[in-house]
Amino acid sequence: MSEKVEKGRSRAAPFIPADTDAAIFLGNPHIDNLMSVVIALGAEIWADRQRIKVIERLMETEGMATTEMVEAYVPTDAEKEAWEAERMEMVERVYSVLSRDTSSARPFGEERQF
Amino acid sequence: MINRRSVMGLFAGAASLVAAPFASRAAQQRTAPPAMGFFETRDDLPPPPKTAGNVPGTLAPRGRNGRMERLPEIDLESRMDFLMSVRTFANQTLSQAAGRRANDILASKGISPDTELPMQEAIALLQDDPVVSARTRTWMSVQQLSWNNMKAECENNADTYLSEMEAVDNRGPGTLELNPDLEMPDYTRHEIHIQPGGYVGNDFAGHMYDYGTNGFYTGRNDQDALHMTAAFGLPIPEDGKVKRILDLGTGVGQLAMALKERFPDAEVWGIDVGGPMVRYGHLRAVERGLDVNFAQRLAEDTRFPDNHFDLVTSYIMLHEVSPQGTKDIVNEAFRITRPGGIFYPIDFNLKNPFPRTAYGQYRRWWDHRWNNEVWTIKYRTNGLQDLVRAAGFDLNEEGPVALPRFGVMNATKPA
């Protein structure tokens, strides 16, 4: 049950929690945390970019853009497709380094003789 | 990039190959056949049911996109869209890179990539590789962030969302039965897919599930296309009578509502152990004007009379159930299905086991261990077909295919 819900209004029941928060995949919990931070920041950047796109569209078509107009805007199917493609391009551009084969990576300076 | 059209086309292509021998019969059986055998694109879907207008107390601040209510703020919608794209990236680009790394690791040990390794051996070989780990971490972060976005939205506006559900709890069409005293087997109380609180433990489980799984389907199911395909692909009894339908483990009622769209004159029930799930399902059914009855009950103890239903089904429920629970549910399904009626649980294809490559084994493990798919591995080894036959059903595993890429479990109760 969520602590945000008064007991009398809740229809939730006791559950068995997962322990995924304890999982470390990248050898150091801080690095695992930072991966989530980096993805969350990407989402925040995209949200701003999306808002700008809607504002630009409204300025073109309506000559103004209020908060209410931005929230109410319904993109066309063509806009949805274009935005989805742009989003995927951004994701590939930003995160594709994660697919880099680092199996032969060495700390800087190691095994280098001058 | 895979888009919605190509993916649904893939489903449809597979379906046409498998289902061709059954096509003419299936077409005769459908009471409201779609233009095509299956819904190839969202454009092929029947129009969504007209909403019931402004149901007092309900909210849709940004309107609806067909069957799905738009999220209440553009920023939240955009964040969820972005996470969906990162999930696609993890499933494609990163997963392919991880698979290549797995093969390289095997090769460095002198092991052929096709070798079927024991799961523990595959895990030990792959779990520390940077690319494999990065793929896993990315997928897990997306999963956690998606749930947390929805959880924060609902809990920060708890009164609003609760008031909306309370406004229609006792309103039709359809009914809602909640049972706060329901004794839940332990297997039902896990945080499946690491959804916060699971299906029973958070009042906004339905909201989180509806929008969270839309991300899991990477947006391809925002019009319940999979559920509509399943509903219209399910076989019906030989005598053609479909007056009562039950969807077990209905969740937020997507299949139950789709079945009501196919069989508008039938009495349709959706039951689930999760009170918050059926409560949300009822809200959505009322908004859509669909007469579907929701109840918080156990699939192994439905409390319906013997021989009651013409069609009993479920959608991806059984792989979330313990072996004992599965046996009990199958026996209960036999009891409540009428002679000549059909039991057709839709779930992962048992004839198409998870890839047994090292990387496939590794993925199967982390999905079980860290995405909290508690029962999936046992589902695949539980002998479901034998349980269905032992309960008394005549089982046809050849067809029809209710949902392409999923298993065929077409069980008829002997007349």
Question: Your description of this structure?
Answer:
The complex is a heterodimer of chains A (114) and B (415). Chain A has three helices and no strands. By secondary structure, chain A is an all-alpha fold. Chain A has a domain at 48-93. The longest helix of chain A is centred in the middle third of the chain and has 34 residues, at 29-62. Chain B has 415 residues and is an alpha/beta fold. Chain B has one domain: 3-Layer(aba) Sandwich (Rossmann fold), CATH 3.40.50. Chain B is built from 14 helices and ten strands. In chain B, the strands form two sheets. An eight-stranded mixed beta sheet of chain B has the order 3-6-5-4-7-8-10-9, sandwiched between helices. Chain B has a two-stranded antiparallel ribbon with strand order 1-2. In chain B, strand 5, helix 10 and strand 6 form a beta-alpha-beta unit. In chain B, helix 7 (205-216) packs across helix 10 and helix 11 (323-336) packs parallel to helix 14 (384-391). The longest helix of chain B is centred in the N-terminal third of the chain and has 35 residues, at 74-108. Chain B is globular. The chains are: A mainly alpha (114), B alpha/beta (415).
Gist of the model:
The complex is a heterodimer of chains A (114) and B (415). By secondary structure, chain A is mainly alpha-helical.
Task: State the total count of DSSP E strands of chain B.
Answer: 10
Intertermini distance of chain A: 63 Å
Which class best fits the helix and strand makeup of chain B? alpha/beta
**Helical region count of chain A?**
3
**Termini of chain B, distance in Å?**
49 Å
Q: What composes the largest sheet of chain B?
A: 8 strands, mixed
Highest-level CATH class of chain B: Alpha Beta
**Main sheet specs of chain A:** none
**So what's the overall shape of chain B?**
globular
Label the overall shape of chain A.
flat
Class from helix and strand fractions of chain A:
mainly alpha
Could you tell me the strand content of chain A as a percent range? under 5%
User: Care to count the β-strands of chain A?
Assistant: 0
Oligomer: heterodimer
Contiguous uncertain segments of 5+ residues of chain B: 1-38
Q: Which percent range fits the helix content of chain A?
A: 40-55%
Largest interface, C-beta within 8 A: A-B, 55 and 68 residues
CATH architecture designation of chain B? 3-Layer(aba) Sandwich
Output the radius of gyration of chain B. 21 Å
